[in-house]
Design brief:
InterPro entries: DUF3558 (IPR024520). By secondary structure, the chain is of the alpha+beta class. It has a single domain, classed as Protein Transport Mog1p, Chain A. It is built from four helices and seven strands, in the order H-H-E-E-E-H-E-E-E-E-H. It has a seven-stranded antiparallel β-sheet with strand order 1-2-3-7-6-5-4. A hairpin with a 2-residue loop joins strand 6 and strand 7. The longest helix is centred in the last third of the chain and has 17 residues. The chain is globular. The relative contact order is 0.19.
């Protein structure tokens, strides 16, 4: 319908909006994957954290995994959601958080900074209705840069999904 309207209007048709969430060239499938199983011990070691506790969670369309660093400075959480795409997440979070579009390992994403809170989340659309969300929370003032840690967790997860 948009094309028909553009063809009848004066001037050249407008290009689609510049939105890094528009298309996912090589979708990945989260179906059957548990969040905790997407990040192995070697990946956690590469994140330079000594993670001493794991907490699993699950819901109708998502699984989650949460870790605390051994030194108590950082909490990490990974959510694998097979029922919500990046576009829908953005419409829900916009009122409470600041969003910055980014690309993670070739996939569209959002850096989501919680307003007034020491937390950073990186959400990555791996398919039109599937996403991963990597979140780092400061548990101590000596915590490493949270968004760097959240993005590294997201990159490790995308690599695991690709089988790299």
């Amino acid at each position: 319908m948009t094309l028909a309207l553009a063809a009848c209007s004066a001037g050249p048709p407008s290009p689609p909006p510049s939105d890094n969430r528009a298309e996912i060239a090589q979708p990945l499938d989260l179906t059957g994957h548990e969040a905790c199983d997407l990040v192995g011990p070697a990946a956690l070691t590469r994140l330079s954290l000594k993670l001493d506790s794991v907490e699993r969670g699950s819901g109708p369309t998502a699984t989650s995994c949460a870790w605390r660093s051994a030194d108590g400075t950082v909490g990490l959480q990974l959510v694998a959601n097979s029922g919500v795409g990046l576009d829908r997440l953005s419409s829900v979070t916009a009122a409470f958080e600041e969003e910055t579009p980014l690309v993670v390992s070739g996939y569209p994403g959002l850096r989501i900074d919680h307003l007034g809170g020491p937390t950073c989340r990186i959400a990555v659309g791996v398919a039109p209705t599937q996403l991963i969300s990597a979140e780092a929370s400061e548990l101590s003032t000596s915590a490493p840069p949270l968004c760097d840690l959240a993005q590294a967790l997201a990159e490790e997860t995308v690599a695991a999904l690709r089988g790299v």
